[in-house]
């Protein structure tokens, strides 16, 4: 911790008066691509929940989810400024590029985090606000500050942070939780390791240079490929659970099976190949896979199918 704080202080001094931050720099701190998937899964949880919110309140709830996700990203960039600077994938971020100081990022993220939780509580309900606060806290303190630099299981445990949004959306409408949002949480939770380990396979040199103990760095490529296959074999049956339990309709069930077959095929190719191309394909496909699963649930709700 002392090393990171010293590094942040040095970066603040080096960046002072060098550059006046622009709105686009603050937007980049929010990790908008990650935020978009978070907001979408939160929207699905909201739409699937029994009952409804006034459109203004629904938009407010989604805004709180978006702001909370962005706040987590900004605080993550503050804490990880030192390793972002040495990784090619992240070296173009605002702090390593000197466009924003670490202190600015921390202040920005902290204000947004507190604001999003308070607004969710006052405007929507405190159950949704509590889950949002848990999400932010888990990503910042458990994943970013505790797990990421200490264990190759960082993605497995830390992945819970990205799995909470459907629960937040559901709770925003109902003030409670049920089986379906918990299943959606479980699907995202199980999806996260193969998704990120596929990226880590072809970015392992980057992580090694930054000293981040991702699974390929610590256990090697072969073990990572094996773990991707194992988690994929667990994910696909789990993705069918909403249909099997009568919480989703035949459109979801059939397409989830087809999409799952594609996921398993790519996982098998990763296991059998020593080339990085299957890992790149898996990373890209996994994003589409999750998006389509949740889009199918939305489509069925629009058609009046499912629970």
Which key terms come to mind for this protein?
307 residues, mainly alpha, Tetracycline Repressor, domain 2, 2 domains, 17 helices, flat, Protohaem_IX_farnesylTrfase, EC 2.5.1.141
Outline = flat
CATH evolutionary superfamily of the largest domain: UbiA prenyltransferase
Mean pLDDT: 92
Quote the distance from N terminus to C terminus: 48 Å
Number of domains: 2
Helix content bin:
over 70%
State the helix count. 17
Low-confidence stretches at least 5 residues in length (pLDDT < 50)? Answer: 13-17
Rg, Cα atoms, Å = 20 Å
- Name of the level-1 CATH class of the largest domain: Mainly Alpha
CATH architectural grouping of the largest domain: Orthogonal Bundle
Largest sheet, strands/sense/barrel: none
Secondary-structure element order, N to C: HHHHHHHHHHHHHHHHH
Could you explain how this protein is built, in words?
This protein is an all-alpha fold and 307 residues long. It folds into 2 domains: 1-176, UbiA prenyltransferase (Tetracycline Repressor, domain 2); 178-307. Helix content is 78%, strand content 0%. The chain has 17 helices and no strands.
Give the helices and strands, then pairings:
Elements: H1 2-15, H2 23-29, H3 32-48, H4 55-79, H5 81-84, H6 102-123, H7 126-147, H8 154-158, H9 160-163, H10 165-174, H11 179-202, H12 204-210, H13 215-219, H14 221-239, H15 241-244, H16 250-272, H17 277-303
Helix pairs in contact: 3-4, 3-10, 3-17, 4-6, 4-7, 4-10, 6-7, 7-10, 10-11, 11-14, 11-17, 14-16, 16-17
């Amino acid at each position: 911790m002392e090393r990171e704080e010293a590094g942040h202080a040095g970066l603040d001094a080096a960046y002072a008066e060098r550059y006046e931050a622009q709105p686009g720099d603050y937007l980049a701190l929010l990790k908008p691509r990650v935020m978009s998937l978070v907001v979408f899964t939160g929207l699905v949880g909201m739409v699937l929940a029994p009952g409804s919110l006034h459109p203004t309140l629904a938009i407010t709830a989604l805004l709180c989810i978006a702001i909370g996700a962005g706040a987590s990203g900004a605080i993550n960039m503050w804490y990880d400024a030192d390793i972002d600077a040495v990784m090619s994938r992240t070296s173009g971020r605002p702090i390593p590029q000197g466009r924003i100081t670490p202190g600015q990022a921390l202040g920005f993220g902290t204000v947004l985090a507190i604001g999003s939780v308070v607004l969710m509580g006052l405007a929507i309900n405190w159950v949704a606000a509590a889950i949002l606060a848990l999400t932010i806290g888990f990503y910042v303190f458990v994943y970013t500050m505790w797990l990421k630099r200490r264990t190759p299981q960082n993605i497995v445990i830390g992945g819970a942070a990205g799995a909470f949004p459907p629960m937040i959306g559901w709770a925003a409408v109902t003030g409670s939780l049920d089986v379906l949002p918990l299943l959606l949480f479980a699907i995202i939770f199980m999806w996260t390791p193969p998704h990120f380990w596929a990226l880590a396979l072809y970015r392992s040199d980057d992580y090694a240079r930054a000293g981040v103990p991702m699974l390929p760095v610590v256990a090697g490529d072969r073990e990572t490929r094996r773990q991707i296959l194992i988690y994929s074999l667990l994910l696909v049956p789990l993705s069918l659970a909403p249909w099997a339990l009568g919480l989703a309709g035949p459109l979801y069930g059939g397409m989830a099976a087809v999409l799952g077959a594609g996921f398993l095929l790519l996982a098998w190719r990763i296991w059998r190949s020593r080339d990085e191309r299957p890992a790149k394909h898996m990373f890209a496909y996994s994003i589409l896979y999750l998006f389509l699963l949740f889009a199918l649930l939305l489509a069925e709700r629009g058609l009046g199918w499912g629970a």
